[in-house]
């Protein structure tokens, strides 16, 4: 990956006459569809168009060919907050602090000196139409697929839909209750998404512009101080990545991934140390396995995040870790991100007045699906757009860039030794009609009847009236979009292949490590409340850094990966329930306490970590052999369901309360509640015949060695892997699926590095399993041996919480009250619990950490025994 930060791309403060040109904030950057130019909008109320060749090619930069600055547009009277090229490449839309949206059209005769300055425009752009309708700052705009619609959002809490042909206003959506700071379109054309300071993302149907869904949970604790909330829709149409979301009551900053149709957010991109300001998806669908055909299980996307911690991260949805993390790239927060059409260059703009380009090698972002395959894949959603209204027809589309050869065609990654020379550039040519042709006028009111669906992907974004190709600046008579021409010549700028340095460039992140970002900077001061309406001045962001801002370290990384779950046939009765998605981070809160049960599925090393967190303190850890699908924490226990169909139950101190439960298949839903199932007439708990099929499902090599019934009513099944399944009548239906698990670990796994608490967690878990197993098998001697080993391990590690819980379990109730604690049994498989406690306390007394606790309970036990006698 090559990183470039051109110092000459800037918006200067022209008000200063001392010659010291201060860089002003850049709020937006966007790449032209042909990749030859970018547009930036800044605090100076200007739009500047730059050639990308000098940015990406050092030889071109030194030669001055093509010119670095192509054009400066000066119609806005306030800071320009957003710029977006149409998909056709013919028009440019800009939104400003002056409450207006301006559409710019290419004009070959508009070159010359910029009024009031020494700058010279080598490329001409003219204002085609000024769109009025917002009552406050316009913060973001977006073109729909095929350029049928233009959506604009602003600080007046409004979303306005404009016709992409006539530029007339079609609809105004006003259901947001706060500043709207982000907008994006569904690539299928079925939905529009907007994000606001009212802490919601709203999904709108394009067929009738009604509200489809509202997503609020990931944003409940999000700060309202971000300048933007720019969100992005994945190119496969399956997800929206929304900025400025949080986890853990606002302590962890994330980008929330919202799933299509269900409109839920179970996936988080975690790692930034301050609020995420902008998300931007790569425009292409990628194949996980390039040799396999495109399918839902074989695709992934690439998304970039820019945050207020001055860092940029790039993620591939097939991995839970970021591809790169670029720290300290800017001096202030990132405002906007934009991908080139070839999918290999990412541009970022910052409020420090600079931009940066991240140029990826094709080997780093391999597997781009072909354009026909991408278009065909989107048809699976079944959304069929209506035909275009009468009076419009598509000009045939120019030959698209071959993304498979984009590095050679667009970036020219050859050698920096290539010498610059005047070559042709992908240019914009305005096609004018013969003067003797009459201009066709649109019927008044026709805009309101335009169908609200997406133009077919096979059609061009260039729209012209059927009887004319004339362009009208006022937009009332059907402005024509000139198509991109790759063959016609244009004097400036000149085309030249981008060249690459032969020297290796360092990566900005190691894929083997988690995100470790820089200290975040403070966001903006004196920002209006999110539910207020009014103007927020873009100039308020100048020089508001705070060196004393405190960084909050994220505890985990989020993401998603393909779920490959083996679901046994079971009994074959009824349909299978859906298996939860396999996420990298899952949590459940103990209601009203702030305590949290967390599970982290590590993708690279295969570890699954379970942790119980109280406040910011980790109380205990455990490691499981199978990925976790569901978790549940209550005031009494913690439960974890894994991919192999097992359920692990813990106390709040981390002790296993029962043997591992083996279900027949992965758990679909887990909730904590109380349930009693009694046979009132017989006055006992009932359960029916129990199947041992779950034992067969655990191993393809299962063979039944023995079967029998024990004196306590339990049933035993033995097999070669030393598993046992015992059902005790008094324990009801729950016991029918209990089984201890003792799997021989993989010998090669011993060579892998382990976390610091790995050995302790696994040893304690093994001993707790042995305790439960020996009780089920009625083996007193083995139970006592396991108990003393368990006590010794607790003493060695100094786990006071576990020690105290074990002591109370063996001691029983201190004071007897009728109707209270009647369920406590003074013995366990033939041993007196208090006799066992005496030996356990002697083990604890030899520990420096637990000596005082043991001494206290030895005195208490002695008094209790004396009272009994």
UniProtKB/TrEMBL annotation:
CDD domains: WD40. Residues 747-810 form the Protein HIRA-like C-terminal domain. Gene3D superfamilies: YVTN repeat-like/Quinoprotein amine dehydrogenase. Residues 34-365 form the CAF1B/HIR1 beta-propeller domain. GO terms for cellular component: chromatin; HIR complex; nucleus. GO terms for biological process: chromatin remodeling; DNA-templated transcription; regulation of DNA-templated transcription. Residues 453-475 have a biased composition (Polar residues). The keyword Cell membrane does not apply. Belongs to the WD repeat HIR1 family. Required for replication-independent chromatin assembly and for the periodic repression of histone gene transcription during the cell cycle. This is Protein HIR. It comes from Gymnopilus junonius.
């Amino acid at each position: 990956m090559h990183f470039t930060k051109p110092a000459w791309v800037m918006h200067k403060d022209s008000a200063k006459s001392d010659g010291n040109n201060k860089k002003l904030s850049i709020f937006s950057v966007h790449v032209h569809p042909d990749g030859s130019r970018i547009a930036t909008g800044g605090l100076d109320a200007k739009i500047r168009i730059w050639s990308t060749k000098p940015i990406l090619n050092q030889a071109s930069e030194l030669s001055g060919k093509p010119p670095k600055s192509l054009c400066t547009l000066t119609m806005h009277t306030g800071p320009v907050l957003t710029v977006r090229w149409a998909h056709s490449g013919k028009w440019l839309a800009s939104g400003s602090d002056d409450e207006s949206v301006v559409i710019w059209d290419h004009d070959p005769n508009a070159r010359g000196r910029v009024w009031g300055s020494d700058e010279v425009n080598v490329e001409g752009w003219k204002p085609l139409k000024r769109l009025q309708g917002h009552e406050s700052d316009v913060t973001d705009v977006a073109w729909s697929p095929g350029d049928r619609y233009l959506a604009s959002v602003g600080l007046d809490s409004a979303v306005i839909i404009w016709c992409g042909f006539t530029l007339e206003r079609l609809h105004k959506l006003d259901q947001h209750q706060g500043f709207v700071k982000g907008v994006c379109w569904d690539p299928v054309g079925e939905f529009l998404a907007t994000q606001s300071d009212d802490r919601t993302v709203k999904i709108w149907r394009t067929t009738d512009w009604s509200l489809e869904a509202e997503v609020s949970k990931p944003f409940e604790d999000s700060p309202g101080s971000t300048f933007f909330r720019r969100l992005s829709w994945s190119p496969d149409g399956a997800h929206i990545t929304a900025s400025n979301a949080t986890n853990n009551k606002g302590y962890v900053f994330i980008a929330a991934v919202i799933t299509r149709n269900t409109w839920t957010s179970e996936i988080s991109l975690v790692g930034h140390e301050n609020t995420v300001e902008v998300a931007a998806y790569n425009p292409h669908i990628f194949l996980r396995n390039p040799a396999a055909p495109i399918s839902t299980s074989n695709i992934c996307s690439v998304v970039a995040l820019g945050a207020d911690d001055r860092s940029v991260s790039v993620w591939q949805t097939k991995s839970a870790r970021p591809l790169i993390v670029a720290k300290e790239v800017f001096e202030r927060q990132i405002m906007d991100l934009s991908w080139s059409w070839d999918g290999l260059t990412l541009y970022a703009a910052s409020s420090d007045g600079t931009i940066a380009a991240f140029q990826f090698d094709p080997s780093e972002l391999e597997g781009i699906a072909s354009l026909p395959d991408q278009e065909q894949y989107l048809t699976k959603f079944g959304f069929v757009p209506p035909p275009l209204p009468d009076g419009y027809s598509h000009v045939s589309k120019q030959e698209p860039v071959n993304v498979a050869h984009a590095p050679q065609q667009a970036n020219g990654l050859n050698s920096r030794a290539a010498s610059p020379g005047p070559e042709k550039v992908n240019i914009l040519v305005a096609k004018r009609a013969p003067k003797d042709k009459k201009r066709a006028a649109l019927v008044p009111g026709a805009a309101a009847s335009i169908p609200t669906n997406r133009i077919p992907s096979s059609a061009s974004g260039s729209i012209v009236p059927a009887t004319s190709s004339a362009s009208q600046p006022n937009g009332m008579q059907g402005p024509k979009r000139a198509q991109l021409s790759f063959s016609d010549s244009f004097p400036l700028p000149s085309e030249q292949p981008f060249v690459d340095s032969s020297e290796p460039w360092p990566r900005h992140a190691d894929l083997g490590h988690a995100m470790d970002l820089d200290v975040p900077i403070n966001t903006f001061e004196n920002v209006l409340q999110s539910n207020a309406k009014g103007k927020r001045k873009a100039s308020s962001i100048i020089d508001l850094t705070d060196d004393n801002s405190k960084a909050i370290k994220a505890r985990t990384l989020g993401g998603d990966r393909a779920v490959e779950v083996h679901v046994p046939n079971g009994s074959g009765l009824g349909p299978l329930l859906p298996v939860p998605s396999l996420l990298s981070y899952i949590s459940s809160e103990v209601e009203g306490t702030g305590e949290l049960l967390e599970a982290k599925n590590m993708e690279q090393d295969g570890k699954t970590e379970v942790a119980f967190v109280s406040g910011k303190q980790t109380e205990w850890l455990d490691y499981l052999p199978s990925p976790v699908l569901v978790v549940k924490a209550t005031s009494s226990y913690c439960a974890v369901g894994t991919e192999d169909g097992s359920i692990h139950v813990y106390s709040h101190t981390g002790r296993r309360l029962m043997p591992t439960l083996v279900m027949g298949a992965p758990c679909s839903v887990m909730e904590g509640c109380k349930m009693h199932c009694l046979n009132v007439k017989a006055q006992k708990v009932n359960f029916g015949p129990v199947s041992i099929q779950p034992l067969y499902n655990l191993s393809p090599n299962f063979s039944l060695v023995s079967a029998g019934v024990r004196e306590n009513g339990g049933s035993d099944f033995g097999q070669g892997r030393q598993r046992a399944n015992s059902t005790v009548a008094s324990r009801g239906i729950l016991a029918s699926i209990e089984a201890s698990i003792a799997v021989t670990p993989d010998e090669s796994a011993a060579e892998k590095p382990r976390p610091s608490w790995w050995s302790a967690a696994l040893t304690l878990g093994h001993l707790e399993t042995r305790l439960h197993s020996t009780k089920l098998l009625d083996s007193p001697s083995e139970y006592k041996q396991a108990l003393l080993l368990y006590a010794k391990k607790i003493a060695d590690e100094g786990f006071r919480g576990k020690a105290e819980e074990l002591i109370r379990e063996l001691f029983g109730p201190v004071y007897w009250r009728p109707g209270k604690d009647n369920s406590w049994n003074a013995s366990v498989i033939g041993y007196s619990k208090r006799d066992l406690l005496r030996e356990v306390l002697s083990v604890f007394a030899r520990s420096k950490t637990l000596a005082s606790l043991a001494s206290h309970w030895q005195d208490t036990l002695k008094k209790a025994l004396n009272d009994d006698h």
